[in-house]
Amino acid sequence: MSEADPAIVSGKVENWHLGPIFDIDAHIDPPKDMWAEYLPAHLKDRAPQIVSEADGDYVVFEGNKRPFLMINNQAGRKGKDFKMVGRVSDVRPIWDPQIRLQDMDADGMDYALMFGGGPLGTMDNELYLASYDAYNRWVMDFSKNAPDRLFPVGYVTMRDVDETVEQVKNLARMGFKAINMPAFPQNPDAWKTDSGVKALKDGQVSALTGDRGGALQYMDPEFDKLWATVVDTDMALTFHLGARVPRFGQKEYFLADMPMSKLAMAEPIGIFIFNCIFDRFPDLRMCSVESGVGWMAWLAEYMDRTWEKQRYWTESKLKNPPSYYMDKNVWGSFINDRSGILMRNEPGGKNIMWSSDYPHSETTFPNSHQVILRDCEGVPEGDIRDIICNNAKKFLKVE
Q1: What is the pLDDT of residues 58-110, one digit of tens each?
Q2: How far is the C-alpha of 57 from the C-alpha of 88, rounded, in Å?
Q3: Within 10 Å of residue 65's Cβ, how many Cβ atoms?
């Protein structure tokens, strides 16, 4: 048994009685040779390469050599055995469809929405844009191994509204049900961001964060053509954290950064609500992914009270209290969040969805059944079924 293939002991509960589980936030990083296969022919020789040395594997790309990071793939390891860097052979090959589906079965997962692995962290515009397309085509091909169980998320740039509109239309034609956007729009040079993380290249960070202080802002009227396209194509819109990025690999910052990365997602939600985007596009569905949900009911109440007092001098044109939009247009996903589950009937806390975060370091795999039962103790079965499956199907509009 190799280190990359640990003995997975299923934690499934016998006689599971709560119905199917839709893992609304699972992850899929492509194999490193994917880029050379899916990039355009004239760019293939610029794809990242894996180089093995005595002390571990390294990713070589555009003249830079970085250690192979393992933080995003700890499937099968216990916390005391986590490794931050190592070799490709040290991680579970989750990009193998057979392994992926076996792990879902071992963990009792019926469906999975998959986030992942692009773009490349290049500062070359052509290669940067091509890497989005390469990843989207690869993940859709991967999902075709079990299209009734695997649902891929498409990734789009957010540096030019017209460019993004065309990307959304193309992803809809390919069969995607959801798209992921950065928490804030990107700069025209999309790899530039004010959210740098030493362990990651800025182009990769920018795909999740954008640039909070950039010239483009989601409140700008020109974005209405994008929101109209998202609604017309019936896409679900996701923001996968990104308002603040933990400093991965820097142990002196990481633990304190993690909770702030969740709570910071209140800002993009507030931008959408207070700038009346949901008033103009009432069918728009957005989700703050992996951010936890216990704070969402608090956020709804706080925004309501703030809006009641401050709406006049700010000349707010909002038609309804903010909690109205939280309940109608905003979803949230969590991994472990007993507080959020207990707040499920409060304004702002209703559209919550469970996830395993497989195979990241926070994952509940392979004990997801036990975690769900623990965190949902005392909750009516109907509510649990909504949290672990029905709400996800409603968000994605799948049967």
Answers
A1: 999 999 898 887 777 777 777 777 777 889 888 888 899 999 999 999 999 99
A2: 7
A3: 11
CA distance 251 to 81: 16
Whether the full predicted model's pTM is greater than 0.85, yes or no, is: yes
b/e per residue 245-283 (b: at least 16 CB within 10 A): bbbbbeeeeeeebeeebbbbbbebbebbbbbebbeebee
Q: For residue 301, name the pLDDT band (cuts at 50, 70, 90).
A: very high
Q: How would you classify residue 137: left for phi > 0, otherwise alpha for psi between -120 and 50, otherwise beta?
A: alpha
Single-letter amino acid code for the residue at 92: R
CATH architecture of 22-30+92-396: Alpha-Beta Barrel (3.20)
Q: Which amino acid is at 196?
A: G
CB 276 within 8 A of CB 219: no
In the block, which residue shows the tokens 């936890």?
Answer: 292
> 380 φ, ψ to 5°?
-55, 145
CA separation for the pair 174, 152 (Å, rounded): 11
pLDDT, one tens digit per residue, over 205-220 is: 778 888 888 889 999 9
Question: pLDDT per residue over 317-355, tens digit each?
Answer: 999 999 999 999 999 999 999 999 999 999 999 999 999
Listed in sequence order, the DSSP H helices in the chain are 34-38, 97-107, 125-143, 161-174, 202-209, 224-232, 251-263, 266-274, 277-280, 296-310, 322-329, 338-342, 368-375, 381-385, 391-396
